[in-house]
Design brief:
Elements (H helix, E strand, L loop, with lengths): L11 E4 L3 H9 L2 E5 L2 E4 L5 H7 L1 H8 L4 E2 L2 H4 L8 E6 L8 E3 L2 E7 L8 E2 L5 E2 L2 H7 L18 H29 L6 H14 L11 H7 L6 H15 L18 H11 L7 H8 L9 H14 L2 H4 L6 H15 L17 E2 L2 E2 L6 H11 L6 H15 L6 H14 L13 H12 L6 H16 L5 H10 L6 H6 L10
Helix pairs in contact: 5-6, 5-7, 6-7, 6-8, 9-15, 9-16, 10-12, 14-15, 14-17, 15-16, 16-17, 18-19
Amino acid sequence: MKAAPHASPAGTLEFGASGSRSRQVKAGRAVRLAPGVYVVGATLPPETVARKHLNAIVAHLWPGAVISDRSAFTGGQPEEGWLFIRHPDPQRRADLVLPGVTVTVQDGPGPLPGDMPMPEGLHLSGVARGLVENVTGRGRPPVGRPSRAAGTQAVEDHIDALARTGGSGKIKNVLAEVDLLKGSLDAGAVEIVRSRLAELLGTFAPTAPASARLQARLEGEPFDAHRVGMFERLAEGLTAMPPLPAPALGGSSRWEWLAFFEAYFSNFIEGTEFGVEEARSIAIDGDIPAARPQDAHDVAATFRILSDPALAGHKPVSGSDMLDLLREHHRVLMAARPDKRPGEFKEKQNYAGGYQFVEPALLVGTLRRGFDAFASVTDPLQRAAAMMFLITECHPFDDGNGRVARIIANAELTATGQVRLIIPTVYRNNYLAGLSSVSNEAGRGEAFLSVLRFAQRWVAAVDWRSFDRAHADITESFGYNDPALAESSGLRLRLPGS
């Protein structure tokens, strides 16, 4: 259909049936959204047109209505094709079925204290009212449509989010708003919300929350629910892939120089760059260059951990054990950098390229629950991938997160007699892309595990019996090459001798 010049693509909303409107519909100049509801001159699809005019349609049929219940939790936007409203005296009680969205009304109070004005004279349930309306009600769930209430667990999750973003001040304000709603909304639902808010301020509640997030906050260990869900999905993806064991054969002499090169590359990809000969002098001979003592300590400390079989193979057996191990490794690694607060978890939010890691207040709870989420992952390489991602995604320290993550991950391999992982310089971008694919939930960890499997194959192919042999194999396979320059030259990490 064609619109008049300068007309809105959403057309003009008109109400009431007439012969002329029917003719416009037949001619393609108008769209009938519902009985008595038309839009003239629209060029957008009917579903989009209905969304554009939704508030005006609702206001026409239910003047002064309040967008409520689970629709309050979505900011007044339809969810799964449904919009829920309340009106003190609805003249129309039947659902309004529009293209792409159905509006359903229930008797209820008009605007209350805390409700937010919306366009066309509508209101949106305020924070306190939205919590009360969404408490699980009595009776059977409806058939063929979502419940009006999002449920008590969703309410408690929202309360947890309020506490996380607004602290006790926000909780006190919402509690005061809830007290104003007594007599206007269901008394039982008001009391449930009130008790949960008061519990956050230190008042005892007789029943435990349904929300794991709120319960964790009350216990003093709130967690990042989105990240924990991400860890659970990664665990499902990893366990669905067949394991490919890679036993570290050949005796200790076969792997003599592995620890040194692992320490060298683990620091190099984090920006602590030395020539490999100079790094050998630092780690093996203890020669600390006067110009870069802190960088030299990073390399030497990493080598000290990796060359100790007990430390290199110490895999955490619980969330608490992991927390202790993380802090201890970090204390050793960052000992020469007091400004990085060795052995102390972060207190400020950290980022990488605009990507936000877990908030400091949620860190400990997220690490614990993340560790538990990976309990089903038992294959050594898959578990190494899980631990590496868990620690990297949480980013628990001000600095040194990548090095600590790789140490913890490789312990899963050493403890089970498998080949450890090294990320050579040329493979850095592949490694980071693999981690990013999991963070962005592109797949279920297939790309990341594939990157680590090739790194493990490369480690197994290098001759680590002497410095010279390992150095020659790494050089031949382009391991030392700068990743950006190698990519522009068409070079990739390859297996020695291939």
